[in-house]
Design goal:
Low-confidence stretches: none
Strand content: 15-25%
Number of strands: 5
Largest sheet: 3 strands, antiparallel
Strand order of the largest sheet: 1-3-2
Shape: elongated
Radius of gyration: 15 Å
Number of domains: 1
Mean pLDDT: 87
Length: about 80
């Protein structure tokens, strides 16, 4: 199995987000431990799994194409 592991800074460069945004907004809300990132050997270091992130980014973008944003922040699925 050939998995691409990325640090927060490497992921930020690849998806064009600030590393701070990834740590504070995306991690644990959109990016889930065990699915999108791991902590090798139970340590503090985080490695992101590029294949899972890339797969889920394209899924989310496909799902949004069939929806209409509403003024109150909701979405109408058509």
């Amino acid at each position: 199995m050939n998995t691409n592991y990325l640090t927060t800074d490497e992921l930020a460069a690849r998806i064009k987000y600030d590393a701070r945004t990834i740590r504070e907004r995306l991690k644990d809300s959109v990016l889930l431990e065990g699915e999108h990132y791991i902590r090798p050997f139970g340590g503090r270091k985080i490695l992101y799994l590029w294949d899972a992130i890339e797969r889920d980014m394209s899924k989310a973008s496909q799902n949004l194409s069939m929806s209409i944003p509403m003024a109150n922040g909701g979405v109408l699925h058509g």
